[in-house]
Design goal:
By secondary structure, this protein is of the alpha/beta class. It has 4 helices and 7 strands, in the order E-E-H-E-E-H-E-H-E-E-H. The N terminus is likely disordered.
């Protein structure tokens, strides 16, 4: 974690050293993260997103490597396939709807780095990768809002 230096004030008092939290303090770790296998039926994915009240999830292959991302916007294509094109989607898998437009960050990042990434890109969630390039978790814009709230409860 990055430290801010102690600052002496004119009255002789010092601020506490403030630490910027690591991404690991606010991300959803892989042990709690909902992931989707690439061969999962897309209607099952839709049900999972709705039941779990999430807007998206990483898509992984049989080795656990991230191969894409499926989110609520990707699932809107289900409507086009079933209604507009009269295409039955019951046998379609997530691999036909997922996006490969995703961004990952290192587990070494802190939340300021993450907030900057969110401010400068259109992403709503970032995949957090460990030092071996494996999925360690995910962090969302909402997670950063929680970090901001927590940080503002401390003296800076």
């Amino acid at each position: 974690m990055k430290n801010f230096q102690n600052r002496a004030h004119d009255d002789g008092t010092n601020d506490q050293t403030a630490k910027i939290p690591s991404v690991t303090e606010y991300m959803t770790p892989i042990s709690r993260l909902i992931t989707i296998k690439e061969d999962t039926p897309v209607l099952e994915v839709l049900k999972t997103l709705l039941d779990k009240r999430i807007t998206g999830a990483p898509v992984v292959n049989e080795k656990g490597d991230v191969v894409g991302l499926i989110d609520d916007k990707d699932c809107l294509s289900i409507l086009l396939g079933s209604a507009y094109y009269n295409h039955p989607v019951e046998k379609d898998t997530v691999s036909e709807y997922m996006s490969n437009v995703m961004k990952d960050i290192s587990i070494e990042n802190d939340i300021v780095d993450v907030a900057n990434t969110f401010l400068t890109t259109p992403y709503k969630r970032l995949l957090v990768m460990d030092n071996q390039g494996k999925l360690a978790g995910q962090i969302s814009r909402r997670d950063i809002l929680i970090a901001i709230r927590d940080m503002n409860q401390k003296k800076w």
